[in-house]
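Supplementary Note 2. Why include the ligand at all?

Several targets in our set were suspected to adopt different conformations when bound, so apo predictions alone were not considered sufficient. For every target with a known small-molecule partner we therefore ran a joint prediction. The input for magnesium ion is given below.
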Amino acid sequence: EARAVIDGNGEVRGHRLTEKEIECVLLKERVKQVLPSAIASSEFAFVLQSKVDMNSECHSAELLMRWKSPSLGLVSPAVFIPVAEDGPEILALSQLALNKACEIISNVKQKGKDVTIAVNISANFLTHSTFESALLAVTTKYNVEPKRLILEITESALIKDVAFATSLLQKLSLKGFQFSIDDFGTGYSSLAYLQKLSIHEIKIDKSFVMNLESSVTSQSIVKIIIDLSRAINARVVAEGVETNWQAEFLTSHGCDVLQGFFFHKPQDTEKWQAAVNLGEKSTLIV
Ligand code: C2E
Ligand code: MG
Ligand code: MG
Ligand code: MG
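The joint prediction is reproduced in token form.
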């Protein structure tokens, strides 16, 4: 029956799908069906994962979306964001994320502290005609300085239209917004655009970090990404740091910021804010 759904959907596959692949396609179909009502009934929430910066006293964290669907249970953003991106749903979800990020920055500011919040911006939102005005409207509404927001975008978002992305990033950088390239090394990197774009940060994809200890090739790739970041004056972040060994390798090779379960798991936004208010600066253990 699963096979019929997939074929009926026009998916032409040369090979027999594995059970896992069938499950994934079916889940995405269900997600597509229930996403509009999930948005209407506000089923989405957010968590924050700290970004541990060796050079800065400022607190920083990435905002990550969570969805607990009454019918589907917990669904990963890695599953529902790509589905949302195929339709207008991504606009509503993106707006929720921008609002939440600015609300957090503004709440903490009222208690006298500055934080930087990173928001994942999907390709279809970045290139949408409403992106710039939505960004400016939300920062104005919450009275948030643009430099308090880091917009995490992927390489694929940038190469959709390089000329457009170049001018957009330049314009928004001049206003103070920071841009980070997420999952760096997994997309279609072009060294030419890196030089042209206003990039403040590069995030080494967790697949390289995960293989660091066992793979000399991953070690070389990570070193090259760190050098590359230096060359374009960008801060370099490693995501998915899970072990002391990885943290030591990364810091000793000049990585500026570390993020991963070894330091902090994504946590409740209220708890994160409370920790910041208490002055609990995420310290390095290595
Ligand atoms: P991402 O931006 O690359 O986020 C990193 C993902 O790795 C997160 O998964 C995070 O929980 C997970 N992670 C963090 N530390 C570790 C670690 O030490 N080990 C391992 N194995 N994983 C770790 P999550 O929250 O499931 O998010 C998956 C992706 O969904 C994100 O990748 C991002 O592309 C997307 N996403 C999440 N929230 C949003 C959002 O608000 N808007 C948009 N557009 N996309 C979002
Ligand atoms: Mg991210
Ligand atoms: Mg990432
Ligand atoms: Mg990712």
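The mean pLDDT is 91. The two ends are 53 Å apart (CA to CA). Comparable summaries for the other entries are listed in the accompanying table.
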